[in-house]
From TrEMBL:
Its EC number is 1.5.1.49. Pfam families: OCD_Mu_crystall. It comes from the Bacteria. InterPro entries: NAD(P)-bd_dom_sf, ODC_Mu_crystall, ODC_N. This is Delta(1)-pyrroline-2-carboxylate reductase. NCBIfam families: PRK08291.1 (NF006141). It is an enzyme of class 1 (oxidoreductase). Signal peptide: none annotated. One of its GO terms (molecular function) is oxidoreductase activity. Keywords: Oxidoreductase.
Amino acid sequence: MELYHRIQIQDVVRLDHAALDAVEAGFRALGQGRVVQPPILSMAIEESNGEVDVKTAHIRGHDRFAIKVSPGFFDNPSLGLPSLNGLMIVFSAKTGLVEAVLFDEGYLTDIRTALAGAIAAKHLSRHDSRRATVIGAGVQAELQIAALKLVRDIDTVDVWARDTDRANAYAERIRERFEGLTVNVHGDMASACREADVIITTTPSKSPLLDAGHLPAGVHVTAMGSDSPEKRELEVSVMTCADVFVADTRAQSESNGELKAWAGKTMPFEVQELGPVIASGQSPRTGHDQITVCDLTGTGVQDTAIASFALKRLVA
């Protein structure tokens, strides 16, 4: 058994096309029915404003599977510590023996989450998308743009966040990272979204932020902030006005994602899943002005895919 630390993992796993292909292959296998993926195990640690999630999946025919333990303790920044942490344990799918522990401190989760956003945009957004709006100004807001640029020729980014200082700092980081990219900070969400081809919500909001009135014709929305029962980013009007609604998994969206808004009610729209969309090889978007929405809650198959990819590079 080998133990690898974040600095080693960062050296071999980046936001690139190879990593994107690995995560996309995991989703494709899920859509083909080749994945064993149990429900998320979640535990709240309320007295410390913390939570712990455990995710796993096995892709049939693959040599390895991973179990990810992901703590989130959201008062940590006041202590000078990161909010998110964690590790991935990689097992042999033939013997069950531990092959490696990837003490990535949440890095691989950040990478696979950003790549899932890019994969959603690849299959659901217009091919001529050039302008992206980001709601939020944290780490994932930055990574989502970096990943999106792998699949779309983004030349303009609009950003809105509740904290204007953080939004301005985010804009400076993005300008420095991507030479020639235009980045605009907006004082309200409506103006930030007005000309968007792609909108990405990246917040831990507990009440909806984005509504149908913010959506221009032809836009694609990736909502990736709602990943637990108490979080919401989308008003129900966003889902009812969408021509296409896709979830990474319907079950997780109903418990942790945006579909929990319909608990106990009949949904007036069809719900598709990202895996079958990818496996089909055909985008459900059929018109330039259609609105598409994808709800990403984070799946165990993404963790197994990125952990296996990382270990292959580490031992190469």
